[in-house]
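Re: weekly structure request thread

Next one in the queue (429 aa):
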Amino acid sequence: MKTVGIIGGGFAGLSLARKLANHKDINVTLIDRRNHHLFQPLLYQVAMAGLNPSEIAEPFRKILGRKKNIEILMSEVTSVNLKETSIQIENKKRVFDYLAIACGSHHSYFGNNDWEKWAPGLKTLEQATEIRRRILFSLEEAEKEEDPVVQKKWLTFVIVGGGPTGVELAGSISEMTRTTLFKDYKHANLKNTKIHIVEAGERLLKAFPPSLSHKTTRDLETLGVEVHLKTQASHLGAEGLKLNDQWVDTKTILWAAGVKASSLGDCLDVEKLKDGRIIVKSDLSIPNYPNTFVLGDQAAFLSENGDYLPGLAPVALQQGEFLAKNLKKELKGNKRDSFRYFDKGIMATIGRSKAVVKTGSLEFSGFFAWLAWAFIHIAYLVHWKNRFFVLLQWCWSYFRFGKGARLIVNKSWRSYGDKNKEEVEIGSS
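Done, posted below.
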């Protein structure tokens, strides 16, 4: 029996584990800090109160618990020994024949880590519910605020980063406030909500063709979003931030700019890119360590066109499936293959009936792009029940302009404007 250790249960790790399930010659150990797999592309829907967390997350034990050759450990790996193909978890050493590192990535604040308390990112369920809490709390504060200047601060939202996540957040906040919730508030006029999206580059969605980037900008502006291009965000704090030389008063800043590979790679003395991704060979193994592989957002894989593959779910899924096939092939005494990524295209949603899609030479936007985005994302959800409920929720939201989980459930709120008071207790609802 060969043993395979998988660190991380994201798209890459879960894909590898599922493909190795029930193999008679392989024992698999999946290790993750959390007990669930998260469908990150729909995480913004949780942040925008469109979906509940359980609709985009599935416990590992529900997915893999009955697979006879798979062990699941909810734990944190503290170190990796490449020479021994071993890991350290909770002061215990585990040695494997093969090791797959697929820990994903987290937000990078470009050396300004103190900004995180003012501008949360969107990578986990905890962050999604925190963003939802901040947005809904801002609306509640605006409703009871009598000073129009202060009320304007509560109704101003700034998203830093013009990638798919930033675009999705900006469009959703606009639709939530101006279309869905504005009748629910009597004193605060939510149609006066100001939404800013900030991008340091020359255009939004830089991975997309320029025509779709320009279309995205126009669609966001139609939704009332103010787009700032070639703009640097700085001096983030409790009362706002600087956009180049302009100060913007706001109580709510969201971060969608820059990612860095998991910090677990920092302890490995191997070649990496500036963003922490580990450079891998054509079979996804680390140079000089043929039985240790890196997958997904943590891997720097040089494609045939000379660019490193982006941190996308399809890349991670294909790498997990590829490694499973390669391991099975090697157990039969055959030579390993080289990984080749099949690019099925990229897409991003902007709002209700608005999205952009590029697949091959085909580029399109609008309602049919939104339909394609919706059905493809539903198809990739792990469990059929999740697909059914997400589809049902989306249909209800689409035709009724409804929003689902509009709950402020956390009991604490980080105080804005009072540095001596870290938290303020508020009621749950």
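The two ends are 52 Å apart (CA to CA). The first strand starts at residue 2 and ends at 7.
Next request, please.
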